[in-house]
């Protein structure tokens, strides 16, 4: 173990191993970053789709509310007309 060649080989081997570990860890970090970027992109696209669906549903609910108000108005007019017919038939409005 006192030979300089052995220590040189140990140093070269250690440097090679450290370089390999560094290279692999760097590649792994880049791969994970790209994977997370892809997932983030997918989530953003899903979020945009949900936003468009939410806007569509909101507009449909607004349209339904308008229709319900129109039906309520018609019912109010119908109620007024029925009351007028009732008063006319039974002579309530004649004093």
Identify the notable features of this structure and list them briefly.
transmembrane, 1 helix, membrane, transmembrane helix, mainly alpha, 95 residues
Helices and strands, in order, run as H
Shape: rod-shaped
Question: Overall mean pLDDT score?
Answer: 92
Q: State the secondary-structure class.
A: mainly alpha
Low-confidence stretches: none
Helix content: over 70%
For the record, give the distance between the C-alpha atoms at the N and C termini, rounded to a whole number: 129 Å
Q: Can you summarize the main beta sheet?
A: none
- Strand fraction equals under 5%
Number of helices: 1
Rg, alpha carbons = 40 Å
User: In total, how many beta strands?
Assistant: 0
Protein model, in words:
By secondary structure, the chain is mainly α. The protein has one helix and no strands. The protein has one helix at 4-90. The longest helix is centred in the middle third of the chain and has 87 residues, at 4-90. It is rod-shaped, with a radius of gyration of 40 Å.
Protein topology:
Elements: H1 4-90
Can you give me a brief rundown of this structure?
The chain has 95 residues and is an all-alpha fold. The protein contains 1 helix and no strands.
